[in-house]
Amino acid sequence: MKKMVQGTEHEYTLYCRKMGSMGLDPHILALDLLRESDLHLAGEFLVNGSRAYYDVGHFEVSTAETSNFHDLVIWEKAGEKILDWVRRIVEEKYLAEGVKLHAFKNNTSPDGTSYGSHENYCVSRDVAFPDQFLREFVPHLATRFVYTGAGDIIDGKFVLSPGAYLTSTVISGETMHNTGILNTRDEPHADGRRWRRLHVIVGDALMNETAILLRHFGTSAILRLMETGELDDVPRLKDPVRDQWHNVEHRNPERWQVELDDGTFVSPIDIQRYYLEKIETIVEDHRERRALRLLEEVLEDLENRRSKDVARRVEWVDRFFAIQEALEKREGPDVEMMACKQYSEIGAERSLFYQRQRAGLVDRTTDDAAIMRAIREPPDDTRAILRRELCDSFNIEIIDWSMVVVNDGTRRRIDLPDPYATKLEAADATAT
Amino acid sequence: MPQQLEERPKKKKKQEKKLEFEAGKVFNPGEVKEEDFELDLDSAKFKAQKGQGGDRRT
User: Which of A7, A77, B14, B49 is the most exposed place for a label (fewest CB within 10 A)?
Assistant: First the structure.
């Protein structure tokens, strides 16, 4: 499969009962500490090519540009670990013994306030937007929740995907209210004549490496198929928002359904199987074949309700089990919500997810050694390595995804319009 | 006018950083004890600020 630059952005929430009364914002404190550390590169960028910044009361981390679904998992996990480290430094430096600073990788707080986790895919401008995306991509986004849902408790009920549950319309440019399955934001951070940065906001914050991998494998493969015009016979959905709302409130796959344009009903698993067959025609290497097989198994296990097997790879199922196990051990009105939220804590000693990963209940796709390397190094096959090399060589005055302004006696703007480029094009450097 | 970066710039001065990342803190947190792993009431009480997550319009 041809490389596709992609990345994720997560709004992490930090919470400490004591710090609020002290007038301190833990998000800002954590960011300040990170910028004083050896992981800081320049501006809002870190040495591993990612970007960490304050956004709407959250600590947001955008991964470096990665070229494939496998690397995406590693650099997303690296961002999570970086935040966990700086969270621990805040605890040690600023909080009394025993006082905790919680960090959550999820999408809602217990009062129902929501925040995002977004995906970005670098797609060709030749694919007609929004028409072809509405026709060929929306059916994927509206049905992928079966294996990409994180699970959550919202409005007093367990939902399979908070992102899907909180989506209001099919297409929209909004990111906070009235959000769409297809988002129209157009900020390419690259040569806009060649590429669109497709901003996907209907997804969930995921802890499970396999779920993250499958989401990016499936979604990037479908976008590649769209570029070559392979999806013109995709099933057309009559009312994807209505069906998505219905489906994410049911754990039993037999109750899931989507209505097609001709009035017939099929399962979202059927829609995903359509895509799976198409993806099979473009997989090439062993990682892609393995991901394809994983996705096949997950769909089959979902259909046959082999929930213990599914839970190893699908987060909403595992989170539901974690909540049920908590209810068996402890009584009280808040136990469900406690377990639901604590599943997504990123601190390994408090997180129900990491407890289950240590117990071997979930499948991994990478290892700690790879994540550790990705904390200090950018991917070596995208623009992220070039940006790092420029920062290591020059004094940087301004930095963004697609340009830096350097000063080594002469002030120069260097454009980085190609997210796949690992070497500098001479024409991209301009005196300012 | 485009200008070629033909010569290597003078070496950037390394800045001293106060904090050094310690992998051991996050990959092998010493305090993990499965036997007294407990649910924490705080996590069911926190309130986040509205972010870019969308809301439900019915």
Answer: B14
- Supply the ipTM of this predicted assembly: 0.88
pLDDT score of A23? 79
Look up residue A66 and give its amino acid: T
pTM (2 decimals)? 0.95
**Percentage of chain A lying above the pLDDT 90 cut:** 90
Judged by DSSP in three states, A260 sits in: strand
Domain identity same for A215 and A293: yes
Quote the minimal CA–CA distance from B24 to chain A in Å: 9
The nearest alpha carbon in chain A to B10 belongs to A408
- Residue indicated by tokens 């990491």: A354
> What residue has token string 């099919």?
A170
Same domain flag for A310 and A222 = yes
Domain-embedded: residue A227: yes
A1 inside domain: no
Q: Is A55 a catalytic residue?
A: yes
What is the 3-state secondary structure of A38-85? CCEEECCEECCCCEEEEECCEEEEECCCECCHHHHHHHHHHHHHHHHH
From A374, A404, A420, the end of a domain falls on A374
Backbone φ, ψ for residue A387 (5° rounding): -60, -40
A339-352 pLDDT per residue, tens: 999 999 999 988 99
Residues A182 and A212 reside in one and the same domain: yes
Choose among A149, A73, A140: nearest CA to A278: A140
Phi–psi pair at A13, nearest 5 degrees? -105, 135
Average of pLDDT values for A359-384?
98
Question: Residue A54: pLDDT above 80?
Answer: yes
Cβ of residue B45 closer than 8 Å to a chain A Cβ: yes
Q: What whole-number distance in Å separates Cα of residue A356 and Cα of residue A360? A: 6
Question: In one letter, which amino acid is A397?
Answer: E
